[in-house]
Structure formats: structure tokens, C-alpha cells
Queue: 4 jobs
Job 1
Amino acid sequence: MEGMTTVPDASPMPAALRQAAKAAKGFMPPEEGLALYRTAAAVAVPSLAEGFGLVAAEAQACGAAVIAANASALPEAVGEAGMLVDPHDADGWTAALRELLDDRESNARYRARALQRWAPVLPQRTTEGFLAALDRTVDDGA
């Protein structure tokens, strides 16, 4: 089967899903993981305890529609640019996923909001800010 990969238990798996599984295990270069965010129909982050919400923030910065748990740091990381769901509400997660998978207009709205939310801190600006802070540190003799 073209585009399919066999996993160790011999069950077929789409190549994109196999790639996502590798990313989850940390076997993928960062640029490939970011490409997954860019092409994902949706990114779900059902975490109960997040230090910052980096997965949700990275996904949004790549233009992904994000559904996140309304727990820990995720509401602040996602803001109104993503959907927030009670982490214990299976029906809520199902409804949110269905909305983003079935309603192209809703999905497009969340993608646009995500990019708008993170545009001020996208890589070029973040790099410039880091270099400026480094210059200030060196100039201060630290």
C-alpha cells in the first residue's frame, strides 16, 4: 500500500501518523515537528499540568487550530485563539474535535486567530530580542 508503513505489530499505519508517533517519542528533527503542526487539521493538548503550554503555543505559532485543557498554564498560553475544554469532559473534547474537523470555516477562524496571537513573537522577532538581550548583557559586563 502506497503511503502506508508497517509498525512492529504488522498493522498498517499512514505515513503521516507514523511520523507523528516518531515526533511524540522525540525521534524527529524540530523542523519536521513544526511541519506537522502546520499541516495538522487540529492539535489537541489535554494536559492536566503544563509548566508553560509550549506545545499549544508552538502549534498556534505554526497556524494550527488548537484545543487545550482549561487547566494549568494552557488557558493563558492559548488565550481566545484556541478552544478550551475541561480536561475531564470526554464529550466536550469530542465536540471540539468534531467542530474543527467538520467545520472548515471554524477551523480557518481558529488558525487565523492562532497566527495573530503569536505573530509578535514568531522566530525572527524572538531571535532579534534574544540577540539584543545578549548584547545588553555583554555591554553590562556580565
Job 2
Amino acid sequence: MSDEKLSWKAKVFWSSRTWESTIVEQVPDEHIVWRSKGPKGHVDGTVSFHELAPNLTRVLLVLEYHPQGFFERTGNLWRAQGRRVRLELKHFRRYVMTQALTRPDEVEGWRGEIRDSEVVRSHEDALDEEEHDREDGARAAGDRTSGDRKTGDRKSGDRKSGDRKSGDGKTKSRKAEEREAEEYEAAR
């Protein structure tokens, strides 16, 4: 697929469901809005990231489910989908937090920007821009603290040029997110 389109597959009891999602808007470290289409219903949603402290982020997720089909509508009467989503999100939160603690160097994120379902800033452009901003900030800090410090020196906490920072302050690439989702499904 592309940066703004994703294909999904999930197993629900004995049957599988597939759907395609289109990211309508994505602003790194702020929010993601998407719409989806599938033969058995669709889910539209948004997730927003709110930094509470340097290593603490509140993640707010809103889902809107539109069931199609007899079993989906019956399950919706009993709120089965909502309960299942809450349980899966609890498992996913535990999985992400464990990965962030046990393998922090492998956590990456896609840094591009999407507006009106079109990529307006690619991942590579965003990384270049962030690197340039870091260099300017280091240069300005070096000018303020000591005139003889070389510009462009990396501090021990700086990210490498190939790293990407996600909404929770960690770094994560889209491929790493997909790999984590696959590992999560395999672990279940």
C-alpha cells in the first residue's frame, strides 16, 4: 500500500475480516485521523497524543463503528465489539510499554505529515527538517554557553539521523509498527 493507505486483517472467532483504512490526517506527535472500508462494516477513528511530562503521554482514542451484516449488528446490540476493543487496547498498551522498556533502540516512528488523505511532507523530508532544527538548536546553544564548542556535535541523547520520534517521545517507523502489530497478533 502507500503511506496514507493501509490494509488490515483480523480474525474474529472462526472468521476473518479484512478492511482498508485511509489516513485522512496525521500530524506527528499530535494526532491521526482515519476512515476505513470493509465488507462487514467499517471503523472510523482518531487518536491524539497529549504530553503530560517528558516521559509520559496520554493517548486518547475515539472509534466509530458501523456494523454491516446480521452477526455484526447482533454483536453490536450486546456491545461485544466495544468490550473486545477495550480488551485488545489493554493488551496492546502492555505490549507497547514492554517493547519501549526492553528494546528502546528499536522503537521508531513515521514522521511524515498527511492532510486531506495526501502526504504533504514525506518521512525523509520530516527527518531532514528535524535534523536541521536540531543542528540550529545545538549551534544556538553552543553560541550561548561556550564560543569554542564545535557546531554539529551530537549530545549523547540525540537521535541518529535515521531515527524517528513518535507521539510518545519514543522513535518508531511505520514498518516497525507493522512488525509490532504482527508480533502482537502472533503472541496472542
Job 3
Amino acid sequence: MSGITVADEVAKYFGNFQKRKNKRMWFMMKFNEDQSQVILAEKSGKYTDLKADAAGMWDTMKEKMPEDEARYGCCKVPFVARDGRDLDLILFFMWSPAGGASRKLVVTRNMLCTTTKDAVTAVCTCKKSFEWREDSDCDLAEIQNDLSLE
């Protein structure tokens, strides 16, 4: 454990995010300026139909991931179950890009992100978790396919 805390606003937001009436597809968290706390960073716009709006909102989420800063996030992913039912699942992700900074800074950032992950996932309790280092790691169709096979 790193001693970094998760802001109360994150716990409150995640509680609301889980509710069916919440029409946001994703939200992201980041470290505050002095890296002592994980705070809310950004959230998606509201969707009308999660399945229909997913691809565009996913692309927007990926565009918001900085090349040189770590992020945590939660996203609702629609998928078709093996039995043909339309479902969605809230996933947790950790974005810790491999590039965009000196090697020493990348290693330090990745260590900070990894050691704080347990504190964040204790607040944002999701059934699935992903760690992404580059844009190609977070492919919506691939994730949906993996979920459909479970």
C-alpha cells in the first residue's frame, strides 16, 4: 500500500455510477497535484442507448487518456452473453502508458499506479479489471468478445 488515499468524492461518484439510472458510460480518476490522493478527473457525457452509443463514447474515453499520465477508471461495457441476452458490466481499468516520458519517470509512475491500485479497487469494486499501457490494449470489440465468452 502506498499511503495514497482515495477521495470521498470518488466513492460517492462510484456509488451513483453503479445505478441503472446513471447514464454515463465511464469516468476517470487521477492523482492530485501532490500525488497524495486519487481524485475524479473526467466523466463521459450521458448516453441515450448504451449499446448504440458505446463505440463513440469509448473512442472519446480513449482520446481523454493522456500519453504521459496515469489514470484509473470505470466503464460500462455492453456485450451479448452466450445465451443471446444483452448485458452490460462495469469494468475497472488502470491506464499507465509506457511512453511519453523519460524511462525513470515511466518506472516511477508505473510503480505509484500499481501500489495505489488496491486502494482504488477497494472503493471501485468491479468484477473485471484491466491494465492498459498503450492505445491498442483497450479495444472495445475485443473486450466485448472476451466478456461474451465467459
Job 4
Amino acid sequence: MTKSRNKIPIVAAFLAVMFVMTGIASAISVDINKGSPDQAESAGDPINVAPGATVNFSLKISAMVNDSDLFNITAFSITGPPPLPTIALKAPPLIIVGGNFHLRPSGMDPYIAIDSFNVTTDASAPNGTSWTLFVEVKGITPLNGEAIDTASASRTIRIFIPPANISGTKFHDLNQNGTRDAGEPGLVDWTIELKNSSTGAIIATTSTDANGDYKFSNLPVDNYTVQEVLQAGWTQTAPTPIPPGNYSVTLAGVDVTGKDFGNYKKAVSISGMKFHDFNQNGTRDAGEPGLGGWTIDLNFTNGTIFKTTTTASDGSYKFTDVPPGDYIVQEIPQPGWTQTAPKPVPPGNYSITVTDKDITGLDFGNFKPKPPGCEKPECKITGVGYIPGKLDAKATFGIAGRSEGGIVRGNLEYQDNGLRIRSTAILSVITSEDKKKGWITGLAQVNGSGSYPFEVYVEDNGDARGVDWFEISVPAIGYSNGNLLSFGYIHIWK
């Protein structure tokens, strides 16, 4: 019994020596890596790829063998849901799939064989789809072809599309053209909603910041709808068409920007008066007439002109269809006039914020400065003529004013389609040093009654063939008229 027990370990030792001497493989190692065969990665982690992407893999087979030992790949496959990725071996392959091959020595390391191949996923593969890449290798004895060892390796390949963002701006579309132009500000505290396009459910909401910007972050692959929550009194202009006025977004791992929303509020009007400020106090008093033909601008705060208009014959002006926003209203100065309103001057303009209500009373006052009175013993203004009338085709006038030794004398006769002004007293006669401009003030009856202050302004062209200017105003009755003479003359001298 003892003898027979000793024979078993002797036979086992003999067989082990024979396996080593003949080079029969005792262990095989198979590794599948993305990229380099020595790339450090955990075999248990899935390899993330994008739809339609081609990824390079390395296959490394190693074993403690001799040069003459043979190996065979018995399985090389990808399994999982369709559409399956495709495998393309390097041409020509170093490792033959389905045939026998040798391993080669690698210094002190085991004998190895390394080859590469590409895996290409289908572009339509949905996010999260995964497949198993499987390789099996067996060793074959050089004598009788019997399998002596088998090893395998597998890796999970998964479609992974990273989360992405959707962003845009909510802006005040001042000119209502559906596009954000220079000077159009962002709108704060507007609600933007994100919906799932398939279910219609709202999955997130956010509010625009001080610049009108918004963002939805870390969104998975899906189809989304981005929409604003309309506020009372506002009209949407972008995106078009309206309705629906929203964006359909397919998110696939890449940020989507520029999903902007434009709106404007109910348009309002801005109005005021351009008046002749006779007493230069910056306020329109009774009897101070309007001034026609003056240009008034409505500007954005950056100085860009939004609208422009001209005052009517009564001095009134009006801007219509003005959307909400910040603006500056200003007059365009005319030569020879000095501005008195609004104060301070300069800048002599109005900075306004338009909401949903009309704005009135933005008045501008101006006067014509008068030069010093006559310093010489004699100062005279005379003239007769016709001017284009306010109510009729022409108005007639005749004037004569003079200052002699501090005594002022003269008269005025003026008619305009039934209106008759006749002076009762001349109070002042002033002429400019160049004898081209003159002023006469006094009291007059209107249609035979009352005693009303009046002012006459004249310009002498200085040439008998030239055209002179005559202008009259009676503030108490709100009357003024003036123009180049269509017939007649004016003389100024000292």
C-alpha cells in the first residue's frame, strides 16, 4: 500500500516537467483596451462613445510559452441591441482571427501578441445603448492540436452623450422688428419655461437676470421646447412665427445658444409745445405764442435718433407709436435764438422713461436776445409791406419808430384778414450795431379795443433789391405772424 501511494506524486512531477520542456502554455492573459494596450483603465468601466463615432481598441494576448507554441482566437464578437457596431481589423492583421498564430518574446515579460482594431457605432444609436465586446483565445500544443488552456476578455461599449445647456436672452424690441438691435436692452425677471417636447410637461423654469440672460444647464439628450411666459401689456415679436413664439430644440451633447425672445410694450405718445418765451422765465405764460417749424428729436439714450418731427404752426409737436424704454427729447437750436426751457440749459432736454402711459407737457422755450438800445441821438425803423398771412394769403403792415434824445415815438398799423392791430404807444425802439436787426415794443388796440403789449421784430436786408423780414406778436391774445416780405421794404438806421 505504501509503495503504490508513492507512485502518484512521482508521475505528477514527471508530467509537470514534460509540460515545461515541450512549451505547452500553462496560462493565457487577454486584455482589451481603448487606444494604447498599456492605457490605464478599469476593465469594469464601460467605454463611452458617441453615436456614429469610431473608436480604436488594442488587443493584447500574453502567456509564458516558447516560440513554437500556437494560439487561436475562437471568438471575436459584439453582442447587444441593434443596430450593432461594426468591427474593422487592422490591415493586414497581426493576430489572425480563426487561424493559428505565435506569440513573440518581449524581454523579461511573457510572450505577447498585440494588434488593433476599430469599432464604429451607428449614428442612430440612442443615448445609453450598450454592447459587449468579447474575445476568447485558446492555446494549442505544437504536437497534437489539443486545447490546453482558454482565456477571454470582454468590455462594455456604451453610447454616452454628455449633458448640455440651452441659453438665450430676453430683450426689449423697441423697433418691433423681431431682431435685437444696438441699444435694445435686456429685460429682467421674465419667466422662461423648458418643456419636454414629447410629453408637453414643464420640466424646468428660470428667470432672466439683469441683462435679460437665461440658461438651462446639464440637460440630457432629448427634444425640448423653450418658451416665455408673456407679461401683461407686452406683445411678443421673436421668435417667429407667433404663435407659437417658442423654440424646438434637439439637444445632443452640444450647448445650444441664441434662443432669444423679443417683446415690446403698448406704444404711447410724447407731446409738447415750442413757445416764444418773451419774458425769458422758462415757463410758458399767457400770451406767449407757439413757434412753428422747429425740429424736435426723440433719441435713444445712446444718442441714436429714434424719431424726429417738426412743430406745427401753433408750436405743438407729437411723437406717436413710442414703445416703452428710456429716451431723450431735445430741440434743434436755430440761429439767433436762446433757449430758456427746460432747465438746466444746457443740456435743455428731457430724459424720460416711457411705460404704458402717454407723456405730455414736454415744452421748449426760446427767445431772441435784444442788443443794447440806441446810444446815438437818433435810432429809426420804418417800413411797409405784405407778408404771407396766418389766416389770409397776405398780411399788411406799416411801421415807424424812432428814438430821439431819450424820447420814443412812432406808430404801427397791422391787418390780417379782419384782425386789426393799431398802436397806442411806442415804448422802445432798439437796433443792432450793424443796422440789420430791430425791435419795437409798445401797446396796441386790437380791433379797436383794449390795450395789449406787442413786439415787432424786423430784419433789413441792407439792399433795396433784397427781401426783408417782419414779425409781430401779441402774447395776450395768442397771436403771432412773421415771414419774409412778399412786397415792401424795411429800413433801419442810426
